[in-house]
Specification:
The structure is a homodimer of 318-residue chains. In chain A, the strands form 3 sheets. Chain A has a 7-stranded mixed sheet with strand order 8-10-7-11-9-12-13, sandwiched between helices. A 4-stranded mixed sheet of chain A has the order 3-6-4-5. With 318 residues, the first copy, chain A, is an alpha+beta fold. Chain A has helices at 3-11, 59-76, 95-111, 161-170, 177-188, 194-200, 214-225, 240-249, 252-256, 272-282; strands at 21-23, 30-33, 39-48, 80-90, 115-123, 127-135, 152-156, 206-209, 229-232, 263-267, 286-292, 297-301, 304-306. The two termini of chain A are 37 Å apart. In chain A, helix 2 runs parallel beside helix 3 (95-111) and helix 4 (161-170) packs across helix 5. Chains A and B meet through strand 2, strand 3, helix 2, strand 4 and strand 5 of A and strand 2, strand 3, helix 2, strand 4 and strand 5 of B.
């Protein structure tokens, strides 16, 4: 089997065939048509075996997550994902591995109407580079730079689960079978908040996805917006599984690990009611965790200031 | 130095600031604006250390080539390159390596007015994933699928030099110092034929870039176009350095190795004069090497049929 056969066999069978794709996989490049407004968002994220996921992660989960982390970036911009390219490097052209990888990737692509329009398959160490282009809707896009003093700060879903999921996978955290399955799922199958991002466009003043940890990512948002903020650790939304593990693991995982791919966003007071409505409509908790203001980012716990490393998850782990 | 500092230091200092980029590096995704016509081409190519280039290749050459191979795909579509993203995985956040890599990448980007709009930097085995989006001009785009019986087949520049360049680097081919420098340059600094591709749009019936070897790539073109072709090995354009090495190395390198990133294209008879004019205007040899027709692809040498493996360069090298 050579590169062309493999791409043919596993990726050309995708079911998504977008009307705005004039020429898909199989030429030197794809040809797509941007909408009349013309505004697109462009992102790329790379997953490396042993760095971004444990080496023994199942190929279907890897395929899913490689697309999910990119969808999360598009979500944080409030855009609709459209076209993906995939650069896949793997040690062996193992058919079973590829089939499962493709199934995880393509199932998530289908859910978000994303068409894979280009691919490059190479022998080498396991490395998955996905690039995703999205379409900006009529409400415009979200960025990190629009937060203003007085805005409320929210985070979607729950935070810290992926961190505990990794500890479960590593064997360093023991929990019930049910909690273990939940936490592993949150690590391997994060749900990109695409619908939320779209609903927030035109309402939230700034947004970022929580990939590097809440402390680091809120730092990026506040830096870009040139604002400070007051955050309350006690307000962080934790899952029941995290709450059960909390006495042992503490708050650090929820604050600094990342990999949850929730959205953290700021909302002017006039739009707070909209946030509650969106939360109900999407059946997704959106929790207020602080407020924009001051000249630095401060965290408190039970009213007392908390000292935190300013850095969340760093990609150059030693 | 963390990921953000490194990206800041080495990639944000690019000089290209396109008017159609509303938001560049530094948010969850970039925001760009497609032209009124809306048609874009999208491609991705990944380079892996030890697979696509010898492990000891200089970082500036690696940075150059990672972009060049993607520019070559955009060239084969007859489009104008516009926005790039870079997923870079490297074993150590070595500042000197990154500075040279960025200088090779950004110098070529500047030459083609390409803006880097997104990046992801990770620790891991050396792997460079570039994604490039281009804009289709008013003459439309080229594809592999438009060749028709009777069209003339051309290739730009010279073929086989990169193959010999690798042999020089490997130490398996001994040539003069001057020829060695030329051949290594062709391996490490291939010139993407962007201007040629644009000039051919609306004139050539099909095009492909020679990345996998002329035999394989012509096979792809003929497959996509559902045509056969007659090719003459004697007509292949060889550089003076290749001609001097020819008695020892033979024709195989020119036929099956690839990595030259020349364009191979087919032209209806009515446009042959245009090809000669374009060749003069670009000061670039465009050589007729055969004709479309028949029901398979045949190669002759001194009038005799030649038997060839149908496969060019395969990415899963053992």
């Amino acid at each position: 089997l050579d590169e062309f056969d493999l791409i043919d066999r596993f990726f050309r069978r995708q079911r998504v065939q977008r009307e705005d794709v004039a020429l898909g996989i199989g030429d030197d490049a794809a040809v797509v048509r941007a909408p009349a407004d013309g505004r697109l968002v462009v992102t790329t994220d790379v997953l490396v075996g042993g760095v971004h996921f444990p080496a023994h992660t199942g190929p279907s989960d890897i395929g899913y997550k490689a697309l999910a982390v990119n969808l999360s970036d598009i979500a944080a911009m409030g855009a609709s994902p459209a076209w993906a390219t995939l650069g896949l490097t793997l040690p062996d052209p193992d058919e079973s591995w590829l089939e499962h990888f493709a199934s995880g990737f393509l199932a998530l692509a289908e859910r978000h109407c994303v068409q894979l329009v280009g691919g490059d398959l190479t022998g080498g160490p396991l490395c998955i580079a996905v690039q995703l282009t999205g379409i900006v809707g009529t409400s415009g896009y979200l960025s990190r730079g629009g937060a203003r003093d007085g805005d409320e700060i929210y985070v979607s879903g729950t935070v810290g689960d992926a961190a505990l999921g990794l500890q479960v996978v590593d064997g360093t955290l023991r929990v019930s079978e049910q909690d273990g399955a939940y936490l592993r799922g949150r690590l391997n199958r994060p749900v990109p908040r695409v619908e939320l991002g779209r609903a927030l466009a035109g309402r939230a003043s700034a947004a970022i996805d929580v990939s590097d940890g809440l402390v680091a990512d809120l730092g990026h948002l506040c830096n870009s917006s040139r604002v400070g903020a007051s955050l309350e650790v006690d307000a962080l939304p934790l899952s029941p599984a995290y709450r059960r593990a909390l006495p042992g693991v503490g708050w650090e995982a929820a604050l600094t690990f990342g990999d949850d791919y929730e959205l953290c966003f700021t909302v002017p007071l006039g739009y707070v009611d909209d946030v509650e409505r969106i939360s109900r409509e999407l059946d997704l908790p959106l929790t207020r965790i602080g407020r924009v203001g001051g000249d630095k980012v401060t965290w408190t716990m039970e009213g007392e200031p908390l000292s935190l490393s300013e850095h969340g998850y760093q990609h150059f782990r030693k």
